[in-house]
Amino acid sequence: MQNNLIKLNKLSIFVSQGRIFSEKKSSVRSPFQRDRDRIIHSASFRRLKHKTQVFANTKEDHFRTRLTHSMEVSQIARTIARTLMLNEDLSETLSLAHDLGHTPFGHSGEESLNECMEKYGGFDHNLQTVRIVTLIEEKYYNFKGLNLTFETLDGLLKHSGSIHDLSKIKKMLQFDILKKKIKFYNSPSLEAQVAGISDDIAYNNHDIQDGIRAGLFTIEDLSEINFFKELLKKHKNKIKKYGKEIVIYQIIRDSINAMVNDLTTNTRRNLIEFKIKKKQDIYKTSEQIVNFSENMRKNDFQIKEFLGNKMYNDTKVMKMNDFGKKIIKKLFKKMNNNPKKFIKKENLKSNGRNRSISDFIAGMTDRYAINLYSSLK
User: Fold this and answer.
1) Which residues of 117-136 are buried (b: 16+ CB within 10 A; e: fewer)?
2) Element (H, E) at 315
3) From CA 35, how far away is CA 39, in angstroms rounded?
4) Contact 53, 66 (CB under 8 A)
5) In whole angstroms, how far apart are CA 266 and each of 80, 176, 192, 223, 231?
6) What is the separation of C-alpha 367 from the centre of its chain, rounded to a whole number of angstroms?
7) What is the pLDDT of residues 151-203, one digit of tens each?
8) CA atoms of 109 and 276, how far apart (whole Å)
9) What are the boundaries of each domain within the chain?
10) d(CA 12, CA 330)
């Protein structure tokens, strides 16, 4: 076991290759701690408080938002990174930042904005996150964006894996600056892979919890999923004494713990199987190294299938999604007719009309978008 830990320690990222704009190093914080702190103090991060995860954040305060989801992802990622002796700060930073580029109204909002931008380079929330941290956030005298490390930028770009189609990147980002340091075709770092799969673990489990709270399905319905069927058997006899809400917390707790344990065990196994001995081996392999076992992958697929049927395709959820799409299309059209009314002149000049409108809409919270839509009727 000790030998495996040493190997993992050698595969983690502790030294940064720098930033787009040179800065004096901090004597008290690592480059990745500084990245994390810049994310937390950004306006885009604060606005996640009022952006949809699954349920629009306009009436009910108990459902998760993009902000609470991002914090939960970071907690899971820190645990995994620490267990595997990787860089916790980098995994945490990537987890906290991964949804900065999300539109209001979740994935339906992204779909709608991408349709509006179809003729102008399209829209992708992962790339929008990178736009935010390289161009949109303005807090410093000497540069736009947050000037994050190249390792963080690489991980944000590759949240879903290596990139082989560069067409959207060239249209949405400062490609000439990034291409000097980002090797798009390479696989992401282990820390980025940790953040990516932590996202998966968080929303699978917490969407189950929110779905039960919303009344879309019951705790008993979890028996349709083999993985949760076993956990339900373990805790079902506690319902009468403690109540269903406490029991579902315990089930979700056990579920996350089981997934994390499976993931860390299987990741060590993958390092041996894929013959990973140095960092370059990580970037060159086409396999996802930080991954579940085959059995847990089957569970993951079954959970997603269950949530798709019971939650994401629910009539009420779909109705709200359609309303969100309608709002975004209306806002895009109205702003296109008179962009100067909404957007700074310098932004229109530097980014162009349609991309500036896209940036503005993507940065909106749900409630701001709804209120603006109502005022424009």
Assistant:
1) beeebbbbbbbbbbbbbbbb
2) helix 315-337
3) 6
4) yes
5) 12, 38, 17, 26, 21
6) 21
7) 999 999 999 999 999 999 999 998 887 878 899 999 999 999 999 999 999 99
8) 40
9) 2-15+30-205+255-376
10) 46
Neighbours of 357 (CB within 10 A): 26
State the average pLDDT over residues 274-289.
Answer: 94
Q: Which letter does DSSP use for residue 52 in this model?
A: B
Query: pTM higher than 0.90, yes or no?
Result: yes
The two structure tokens encoding residue 165: 């189609």
Q: How many percent of the chain have pLDDT more than 90?
A: 85
Encoding tokens for residue 222?
A: 């979890």
Lookup: tokens for 41: 């103090």
Q: 171-196: buried (b, 16+ CB within 10 Å) or exposed (e) per residue?
A: bbbbeeebeeebebebbbbbbbbbbb
Strand partners, 145: 138
- Tokens 């956030």 sit on residue: 137
| CA–CA separation, 247 and 236 (whole Å) | 8
Residue type, 154: D
Task: Give the Cβ contact number of residue 199 at 10 Å.
Answer: 23
Token pair recorded at residue 138: 């303005």
Q: What superfamily would CATH give domain 2-15+30-205+255-376? A: Hypothetical protein af1432 (1.10.3210.10)
Say how many C-beta atoms besides its own lie within 10 A of residue 75's C-beta. Answer: 14
